[in-house]
Design a protein that fits this description.
The structure holds two protein chains of two kinds.
Chain A: H1 7-11, H2 17-32, H3 55-68, H4 80-83, H5 86-98
Helix pairs in contact in A: 2-3, 2-5
Chain B: E1 3-8, H1 17-26, E2 34-39, E3 43-49, E4 62-63, E5 69-77, H2 80-89, H3 99-110, H4 114-117, E6 120-128, E7 133-138, E8 147-151, E9 154-158, H5 161-166, H6 176-185, E10 198-200, E11 205-210, E12 213-218, H7 234-249, E13 256-259, H8 264-276, E14 282-288, H9 296-306, E15 309-315, H10 319-331, H11 340-352, E16 357-359, H12 364-367, H13 372-385, H14 395-399, H15 411-418, H16 431-438, H17 446-450, H18 457-463, H19 474-501, E17 506-508, H20 514-521, H21 525-528, H22 536-542, H23 548-551, H24 564-567, H25 573-578, H26 581-587, H27 592-603, H28 610-630
Parallel strand pairs in B: 13-14, 13-16, 14-15, 16-17
Antiparallel strand pairs in B: 1-3, 1-9, 2-3, 4-5, 5-6, 6-7, 7-11, 8-9, 8-10, 11-12
Helix pairs in contact in B: 2-3, 6-16, 7-8, 7-22, 8-9, 10-11, 10-28, 11-19, 13-19, 26-27
The chains are: A mainly alpha, B alpha+beta.
Chain lengths: ~110, ~650
């Protein structure tokens, strides 16, 4: 039975930036760099223009962030400043949904 | 179309009839109607014939009046009747009504300059006994193939690589840099091929072999002298050129049919062909069981509009994987798409229905800026030039509505396009495609990656751009790159000539009449791409001839399923066998662990990204290609053992 109380929702409001960065890094490695374990993906390396993400990859990444961190993202949030590196993503997601005074969305993430 | 092959010796030690027959047998599919050979102590020529013009008398090799000029010819000269008149006025005597003989006498009369007078699609070799030299040439756009290899001053040449290998004198080896180009551009860029030591004669080039040395020369160069304004009578000029081009390509002593994709380009060609045909035009289409790829509705509408007798080759889920080994054998290269496979089956259908010449719509998208790539280039370059206009990047949302639902788009998504290349990079237009394709290389085995010492394909391409490239507009540069990286080596070859000739079908390409190319290249860009409306002038012309539903229909790229054929239902056993780690290790090109991870995602139905589907096709086709051409012991795969038992050739080998 789906209670709507999955582990993500339970812990989402308490995630630190470092945890968000780690999960994002793992996601990128497992989904976009699985064939290149030798690829050194630094947290400040740009995700665009380096072979990590293309346009479809961007869409997949946004879907991941919304689902994984129960974080509702508006179109105006989808900027290179917020999503251009792992560090930027962690800072943005933490600030938007997991920082002081901000709770993660309690609603299911929008379908995109 | 036909097939040709031959050997020229630096020292006069002859060419055996057996060797020539083996070479001819390897390309017998190109010319099932007859074959012939000629050899002396220096040069041997072989020809397999598809009889299209002067069926009774066009046998080759053909000579001039005194036997000093011999030719083997693959293709068609569409203005041969006019040239024949000129040559007769110069006193040349003709024994046949074939276009081949025009080539013989034209060479006698004008020498190498005969090339400037030819309107056609061709590759040929002329043995000039008087000068003890051999002259090779290929048409302006690379519609017809021609390969060669040199060894110790001897020259080997043929329509397909398999004929070179069948000589048993050309080494079977891979060129890692050639393979690396396939995984950048979709095909190796001529003169490079995936075979070490085997070169493709570049489109618009010719070569003279004498005393063991080969000298190459370009006789036709693509140019884009775009005018500032569209000439007032441009539509009338286009009308005349289209009609003339199709009319010339309807000339044959056998019925001519047409391929219908359902799009604008082939609809125009078939409409003009139907109007000029003395009999009811036969048209052929590919239809997919999968509705995402199917265009049957539009194809039927065009067939009804032009009044053709239409036949459809349905492509069921299992068909692509079933024929894919044959497709790779005929293409002679690894592939990154399965799209040639349905065309392989289409030519089979056409041949079964006794149509061995078809007109196609290839070339129009390159001439009239039909592909989304051109719109993408225009938008991205505008975004970089005018960052102060925030609405510009939003045009990408309109261009790629299928890539993401509205909620997924934003500045970051648009940046993924805009950041794809620097505006001052000469390859700006194509960098997104090249980069996506090059992700295949992430799956290379480390040992194979270490063999790539010959620079990178993009660097080589930048170094070899023509002198005028920098002066062309951004769209003209994009059109040029599309012609030389995709049209010629992939669309006209892997997806064109090879798939048609696999079943002895000649594909004629009216849009690649050089007069039409020159007309289109001289138009201002907005005559072709008006805002985001592609092929504008062609659409303006087409309202005269076609139903409005077809002239207004947006371009739909031709695609075939890439991953599903190899994993859904009951795929052929070879798929599983080729993807085994031991098998991959033996070939040594792809990393078994990386491939296993991709295959796992394929089996789980997780592969929706283009770079992953392209990688899967690249791996399967490379493994097939390697086994077909490089793993076989010399002389065991392409022998002429079935020559005698097959269709009886019209001609007979002649040794002199």
């Amino acid at each position: 039975m789906d209670t709507g109380e999955g582990p993500l929702h339970q812990e989402s409001a308490t995630l630190k930036e470092s945890e968000i960065a780690a999960r994002t890094r793992d996601y990128l490695r497992e989904n976009f760099l699985y064939m290149r374990p030798d690829w050194k993906l630094g947290d400040d390396d740009p995700l665009l223009g380096t072979g990590v993400l293309d346009s479809i990859g961007v869409v997949e990444l946004v879907a991941f962030l919304q689902a994984e961190f129960a974080c509702e993202v508006e179109e105006e949030d989808l900027t290179e400043r917020n999503l251009g590196t792992v560090t930027a993503i962690a800072r943005f997601v933490h600030g938007k949904c997991h920082g002081n005074g901000n709770g993660a969305s309690r609603r299911p993430p929008p379908v995109i | 179309m036909c097939g040709l092959a031959g050997i020229a010796r630096r020292h006069p030690r002859g060419v055996s009839a057996e060797t020539l027959e083996h070479m001819a047998a390897a390309i017998r599919h190109r010319g099932p109607d007859g074959f012939g050979t000629r050899a002396d102590d220096r040069v041997g020529l072989a020809h397999v014939r598809l009889s299209v013009i002067d069926v009774a008398h066009g046998a080759q090799p053909m000579t001039n009046e005194d036997g000093q000029v011999l030719v083997v010819f693959n293709g068609e000269i569409f203005n041969y009747q006019a040239l024949r008149g000129e040559l007769e006025a110069h006193g040349h005597l003709f024994c046949t009504h074939s276009d081949t003989e025009v080539l013989v006498h034209g060479y006698e009369q004008w020498g190498e300059d005969v090339l400037d007078r030819l309107n056609g699609q061709f590759a040929f070799a002329i043995y000039d006994r008087r000068a003890a030299s051999l002259f090779l040439a290929r048409d302006r756009f690379g519609i017809v193939p021609l390969y060669y290899a040199e060894r110790g001053g001897d020259l080997y040449f043929a329509s397909e690589v398999k004929a070179l290998l069948a000589s048993n004198e050309v080494e079977r080896a891979l060129d890692p840099a050639g393979l690396d180009e396939v995984f950048t551009f979709w095909a190796a860029r001529p003169p490079r091929t995936p075979f070490a030591g085997v070169r493709a004669l570049e489109p618009g080039c010719c070569a003279r072999w004498r005393d063991g040395r080969l000298a190459l020369r370009r006789y036709y160069a693509l140019d884009y002298p775009a005018a500032a304004e569209e000439p007032p009578a441009a539509i009338d000029a286009l009308d005349e050129l289209l009609r003339s081009s199709v009319s010339g390509r309807m000339r044959a002593d056998v019925p001519v049919g047409g391929y219908l994709s359902g799009g604008l380009d082939s609809s125009i060609v078939c409409s003009l062909a139907a109007a000029q045909s003395p009999y009811q035009l036969r048209t052929f289409s590919v239809g997919f069981d999968d509705p995402r790829f199917d265009e049957s509705g539009f194809q039927q509408a065009v067939a009804a509009a032009v009044g053709s007798r239409h036949a459809v080759q349905r492509i069921a889920p299992g068909d692509i994987a079933r024929v894919f080994p044959d497709v790779v054998r005929h293409a002679e290269t690894p592939l990154v798409r399965t799209a040639p496979a349905p065309l392989y089956l289409l030519s089979q259908l056409s041949r079964e229905q006794d149509i061995k010449v078809v007109l196609t719509g290839e070339g129009s998208d390159e001439l009239f800026l039909g592909y989304d790539l051109f719109k993408d280039t225009l938008i991205r370059s505008s975004c970089l030039r005018r960052p102060d206009l925030p609405w510009l990047p939003r045009l990408l949302d309109r261009l790629y509505p299928e890539l993401a639902p509205a909620a997924g788009k934003g500045e970051f998504w648009r940046r993924s396009f805009v950041n794809a290349g620097a505006a001052d990079d000469p390859l700006f237009s194509h960098l997104p495609r090249f980069h996506v394709t090059a992700r295949i290389k992430d799956f290379y085995a480390p040992e194979f990656r270490a063999t790539l010492k010959d620079g990178d394909p993009l660097g080589r391409l930048r170094d070899e751009l023509p002198a005028g490239f920098g002066r062309w507009s951004v769209l003209a540069r994009a059109a040029y790159l599309e012609m030389v990286t995709l049209l010629s080596p992939y669309l006209l070859s892997s997806q064109g000539d090879r798939m048609a000739m696999a079943h002895g079908v000649e594909a004629r390409v009216p849009y690649l009449d050089h007069r039409l190319f020159q007309f289109a290249a001289a138009l201002p860009a907005r005559s072709k791409l008006r805002g985001l409306r592609e092929k504008d002038i062609l659409r303006r012309w087409a309202v005269r001839a076609l139903p409005a539903a077809l002239t207004r229909r947006p371009k739909q790229p031709y695609r075939a399923p890439d991953v599903a054929p190899f994993f859904e239902g009951q795929p052929p056993a070879y798929v599983e066998a080729l993807l085994q780690p031991a098998s991959l290790r033996q070939t040594g090109i792809f990393d078994p662990t990386a491939v296993a991870a991709l295959v796992k995602r394929c089996r789980a139905g997780l592969v929706t990204r283009v770079w992953e589907s392209q990688t899967l096709v690249a791996i399967v086709s490379t493994e097939l290609w390697h086994r077909e051409f490089l793993s076989a012991p010399t002389g065991t795969r392409l022998q002429a053992h079935d020559w005698a038992s097959g269709a009886a050739p019209v001609g007979s080998p002649v040794a002199s």
